[in-house]
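[09:14] KT: can someone run the structure on this one? pasting the chain below
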Amino acid sequence: ESEPEPEPEPEPLDTTEEEEPKPAKIETTSPSSSPSKKDKDTLMEQVKLEVSISNPKKVGDGMSSYISYTVNTKTDLESFGVTDISVEHRYSDFLNLYKNLVNDYPGVIVPPPPPKDAIGSGLTKWKSQEEGVTTTFIERRGKGLQRFMERVAVHPALYKADSLKIFLTTENKIPKPKTSTLSHLAQKLSSYVESDEYFAEKSHEVDVLENQLKKVYNALSLLVTRRRELSELTTVFAESFSSLADCEELSSLSDAMHQLADVEAKVAKLHRKQQDKDFYDFSELAFDYVQLMGAIKACFQQRISSFKSWQSAESNLLKKREVLENIEAKNKVEKLEQAQKDVALAEDTVDEAKTSFEVISKRMKQELKRFNFIRAKDFRDAMFKYTNEMRELEEKIAHAWTNFLPIAKGIGQDEL
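[09:31] RB: done, structure tokens below
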């Protein structure tokens, strides 16, 4: 068997801050605030829209090549017109879908796809089509795209998006949005002071939670690395001890040494399997939630941007009213009608901007509540799964050594 391809070392996330936020209690589903059954149904709206990612394949060769993925959809939504669809898309289509959803649904926590990876992408470009694309990078990206699509498909607002329907039903290249909300948000945060107590508190909680998640992810990444190293070193020991057994003249001792080496080899494989489970079941969950914190911050920035648009509209209305008052004072009849129209238009703009800000604020409160509920559920499930996996791992290791113990005791004493 060929040696498994080594996994790339995950880059540790930066957890340093100019001033680390003070610990704060993060809102979860405590008994006093646990969602009712009706609220749970709303938070986890049941939608028949199942999306799976499969069959990664390389298209083309060299630097112009890319990896395409088959996107399989099963649904009973009438708007789709069909119940079973399969199309192919490349990574940039997933990324542009995400950008379109962020633009079209301000205030919604849009789950992000796995981030760009220039090194991983570059390495796959230089592999020939015959070599296949079963690299760790492709596997990790494929699983990340799977989680991205699953989260979008069950979101009570996003599953209805026209851009999602186009993505799932056609192989058209998904265009970038004409104006990218993400690229302009960061610069709009300067000189803004949050006056709403609820959002000020939530913003602080998000900062604290993001920092804690980064630390957990870095710790899990180190755990994955160390478990892989343990597996590799245990394998080296098993092979070395087996070679030593070949040199042993005492047959009963030689046989026992070979069997001990076999046990060590088995234990090494168990650690290797657990390392994969730790990575995909726990470490990647923490990484996804670090990325989701960025999506939440984008929502906060969208709200700030909407507030500034409202204030700008208010300022423009004051100017238009001043012009109108000046025209009325000077009795400039020929300009009066246009000035009145300008004021009416400015008033409409203010109303629209105010309504937009209020809608985003209300939507964000709903989104944060839904996020906390799902986050608690995801980590509860991950902890339960991890606990069972560790219990099974230890039981298998203990069983292997328990079976070997009589063999070790049975080495012929009279031959020694």
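[09:33] KT: thanks! Residues 9 and 225 are 8 Å apart (CA to CA).
[09:34] RB: yep, looked fine to me
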